[in-house]
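Input record (one chain):
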Amino acid sequence: MTDPHPLPDTELIKHKGYQIRLSPSGPEWLAFVARPKQRPSLILAADREAALAKAYEWIDLQLASDKKPE
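The corresponding structure, as predicted from the sequence alone:
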């Protein structure tokens, strides 16, 4: 998930093998969450802290679903 033209206000955070790209977008914040080389999921929140908390929760749910036996 390398972007040749990153947004100037974008912040990259790595968490449990995922990348979280946080970026302000008007009055909201966007979080793009994905493992490297995967299509990102988009999370929208009112502020940076909420976007990051939602991103962490989303990652934890993905990891929990990966561990469930089928």
